[in-house]
Write a structure and sequence with these properties.
By secondary structure, the protein is an alpha/beta fold. It has two domains: 10-129, DNAb Helicase, Chain A (Orthogonal Bundle); 183-493, Rossmann fold, CATH 3.40.50.300. 51% of the residues lie in helices and 11% in strands. It has helices at residues 10-22, 24-33, 42-56, 63-72, 81-89, 95-126, 133-149, 159-176, 189-195, 214-228, 242-254, 258-263, 268-282, 296-309, 337-355, 387-391, 401-409, 420-427, 429-437, 476-485, and strands spanning 203-208, 233-237, 286-289, 315-319, 359-364, 394-400, 442-452, 458-465, 470-472. A nine-stranded mixed β-sheet has the order 3-2-4-5-1-6-7-8-9, with helices on both faces. Strand 7 (442-452) and strand 8 form a beta hairpin. The longest helix is centred in the first third of the chain and has 32 residues, at 95-126. It starts with 9 loop residues before the first helix and ends in a 13-residue tail after the last helix.
Length: 498
């Protein structure tokens, strides 16, 4: 151990013990909230042990009974004798303050554990007991997080306190929200009707088959949040390098063909648009981490670090769950992949709650989706673990009819007759024609909000301009036609095209 004094507060310990000997309410609070190790001073620890013994036998706790119990335990002299017990009684505080002093004692216990763990880490380093640096850091981060969580365990809250908090929250949302958005703006009003924006503490799962466009959509959400809310956004890209991600962002923001950016075949007009987009992007606070196949502990640690430097961090996006790894050790070597994914989804949900930030995690759907009616994805198609569905507050399943039909039939350009796509494209023919004229490929993408813990479920459609990696809103009539084709009741949507 390092040669330094661990933190403790003798006066706080004495105040708690003194109050417990003069107030039955304080005695109940102390014995139910504290344990022996919370008292750093040995005299105080011995006295609390005596109090606990009395409490277990439903005996009264006061100066006399505590002294008698210490005699029975043969620890009265080690505990400072009767003189010290009466000194504690003189340290009594009001019942209103007992909870505050109990928290001081508990917090310092956590702090001591934290420092001891750091000292153990230094010792392991000094003794060269580190076979793998990544695993060593991730494992110890987990241990430190477990210790830190001990001080965040909350007690009961009275309804009077909670109702005041909610009333103030409603007032703030009424004063500052725009339309029906109370969280981080998605950038798509039809989606906001279901989510009311991305909410603090929520885990949102965005799932699709490969190549449907989930990464492109995630980048659109990132840009929308950064531009509309003007707050920092974090993006963990587990598969693509930062420069590749930036090329997609530039294509979307500058409206320049993504293939032209990839190949470098850019006109002067393209460069002009890119230069304007570069200046716009520089104003955004978007942070990209492109570590391939990261450990869950590293993702959590980096998110906490960014939150510390950017307190207004508004959104975290991870692409994608299937590439995140769980640290080995502590019995995890024999975990199935389903168990690992469950640990990952649970860790991301905990991260969202701890940082009070919405977390969007991308996920893949399994191949069984091709066997579904109309090849439309369902919650059961979430890949690798049912825990994803359980941990998520919102699950959004992406679907492109043209992509699915291409996979199913092997057609390069699938027929549109009789499909939802046909109805949609008829209603937006003029807009599509203009896009095609400009060399843009357009697909209608459906987003099934299959789970929404705090709202309604349903489906929306957006146009995916593939050349620009860009998703845009559709005409209101086209949306309703899509809903009718899916057998949905559209009455709730009539007249809401604000």
């Amino acid at each position: 151990m390092a040669n330094f004094d661990l933190p403790y507060n003798t006066e706080a310990e004495k105040s708690v013990l003194g109050s417990m000997m003069v107030s039955s309410a304080a005695a109940s609070m102390g014995t139910s909230s504290l344990i022996d190790e919370n008292f750093y001073d040995r005299k105080n620890r011995l006295i609390f042990q005596a109090m606990n013994e009395l409490h277990k036998r439903n005996k009264t706790i006061d100066a006399q009974t505590v002294a008698d119990e210490l005699i029975n335990l043969k620890t009265l002299e080690d505990a400072g004798g009767r003189e010290y017990i009466w000194e504690l009684v003189d340290s009594v505080i009001s019942e209103d303050e007992i909870d505050h002093y109990i928290n001081i004692v508990r917090d310092l216990t956590v702090f001591r554990k934290f420092l001891r763990k750091i000292d153990d880490i230094k010792t392991e380093y000094a003794e060269e007991k580190i076979p793998d640096i990544g695993e060593f850091i991730s494992g110890n981060l987990d241990s430190l997080q477990i210790i830190a969580n001990e001080r965040t365990v909350g007690g009961f809250k009275s309804v009077s306190t909670v109702v005041d908090q909610v009333r103030n929250q409603l007032s703030n949302e009424a004063n500052f929200s725009k339309g029906n958005v109370t969280g981080i703006n998605t950038g798509y009003s039809d989606l906001d009707k279901y989510t009311h924006g991305w909410q603090k503490g929520d885990l949102i799962i965005l799932a699709a088959r490969p190549s449907v466009g989930k990464t492109a959509f995630a980048l659109n959400l990132i840009l929308n949040a950064a531009k509309l809310d003007k707050k920092p956004v974090a993006f963990f890209s587990c598969e693509m390098a930062a420069d590749q991600i930036m090329k997609r962002i530039l294509s979307c923001e500058a409206m320049v063909n993504a293939d032209a950016i990839q190949t470098g075949r850019l006109s002067r007009k393209d460069f002009g648009n890119i230069d304007v987009a570069v200046q716009n992007i520089k104003q955004m606070k978007v942070y990209i981490d492109d570590t391939p196949s990261p450990y869950l502990g590293d993702v959590i640690a980096k998110a906490h670090k960014l939150k510390a430097t950017e307190p207004e961090l508004s959104l975290i996006v991870l692409d994608y769950i299937g590439l995140v790894k769980v640290e080995s050790g502590s019995g995890r070597n024999n975990m199935s992949r389903s168990e690992e994914v469950g640990r990952i989804s649970g860790g991301l949900k905990e991260l969202a709650r701890q940082l009070r930030v919405p977390v969007i995690a991308l996920s893949q759907l399994n191949r069984n989706v091709d066997d579904n009616p109309n090849m439309k994805p369902q919650m059961s198609n979430l890949r690798e673990s049912g825990a994803i569905e359980q941990d998520a507050d919102i699950c959004i399943l992406m679907y492109r009819a043209d992509y699915q039909k291409t996979k199913k039939k092997g057609d390069e350009k699938p027929p549109m007759e009789g499909s939802v796509q046909e109805a949609l494209l008829n209603d937006i023919e003029s807009k599509k024609a203009e896009m095609v004229k400009n060399g843009n490929e357009v697909s209608i993408t459906s987003f099934n909000i299959a789970k929404n813990r705090n709202g309604k479920i349903g489906e929306i459609q957006l146009m995916f301009e593939r050349n620009y990696c860009r998703f845009t809103m559709m005409d209101h009539n086209a949306q309703n036609e899509a809903r009718r084709s899916n057998g949905a009741d559209i009455s709730e949507f009539d007249g809401d095209d604000e």
